[in-house]
Amino acid sequence: AQKVTQAQTEISVVEKEDVTLDCVYETRDTTYYLFWYKQPPSGELVFLIRRNSFDEQNEISGRYSWNFQKSTSSFNFTITASQVVDSAVYFCALEGNNRLAFGKGNQVVVIP
Amino acid sequence: NAGVTQTPKFQVLKTGQSMTLQCAQDMNHNSMYWYRQDPGMGLRLIYYSASEGTTDKGEVPNGYNVSRLNKREFSLRLESAAPSQTSVYFCASSYDRAEAFFGQGTRLTVV
């Protein structure tokens, strides 16, 4: 069965600080995909990034970066130089065998 | 492009009433999903459909039924609503394991 664990529940940072969100996953699938989504206070779910299980190359996209380590089943996400608009709930998700499973989310509060 | 459209946006039911949440996507996606979101619980998968004509149970299917009417539409039915089903429901769709697109959500209250 698939499982996604996001241990931290709420994280508060002062504006311009970096914030890293941890995600650990479990799956028996050999091919799978990992995602990060953002849910701002308005409630909609916004796709941020996607990574497949064969590609462990870490990347940076603007202020977002991610660290995928298959050996530890982790897919961590970092927001650099946080802004108030980054205040949201962030979800890590795992897709395998047509099922898309989410973690419980990290509430990020950016204090001006 | 409408994307994923869910109706209704809000609903109040009395315990024991039934209702169907509608979901339609216009992106020609093969996979569709229904989730419920409760405080502190994240998004929990109720049912999913990998393709037209197939449906499978997710993590919390009890009390729900689904119908994949065609490629565009995936409905969620509550036959006898219970207060424990008070939640925000999201429908989503995706194509070939790409990112999922979500509807705006339905806020359901069962009294």
How would you describe this structure in keywords?
heterodimer; A: 112 residues; mainly beta; 0% helix; 55% strand; B: 111 residues; 7-stranded mixed sheet; 4-stranded antiparallel sheet; globular
Structure write-up:
The complex is a heterodimer of chains A (112) and B (111). Chain A has 112 residues and is an all-beta fold. Helix content of chain A is 0%, strand content 55%. Chain A has no helices and twelve strands. Chain A has strands spanning 3-5, 10-14, 19-21, 24-26, 33-39, 46-52, 59-61, 64-69, 74-79, 88-96, 99-102, 106-111. The mean pLDDT of chain A is 92. Helices cover 0% and strands 52% of the residues of chain B. Chain B has strands spanning 4-7, 10-13, 19-25, 31-38, 42-49, 56-57, 64-68, 74-78, 87-94, 101-102, 106-110. In chain B, strands 2, 4, 5, 6, 9, 10 and 11 form a seven-stranded mixed beta sheet that branches. A four-stranded antiparallel beta sheet of chain B has the order 1-3-8-7, with no helix packed on it. Chain B has 111 residues and is mostly beta strands. In chain B, a hairpin with a 5-residue loop joins strand 7 (64-68) and strand 8. Chain A binds chain B through residues 6, 9, 33, 35, 43-45, 47, 50, 91, 93, 95, 98-105, and chain B through 31, 33, 35, 40-45, 48, 50, 56, 58-59, 88, 90, 92, 94, 97-102, 104-105.
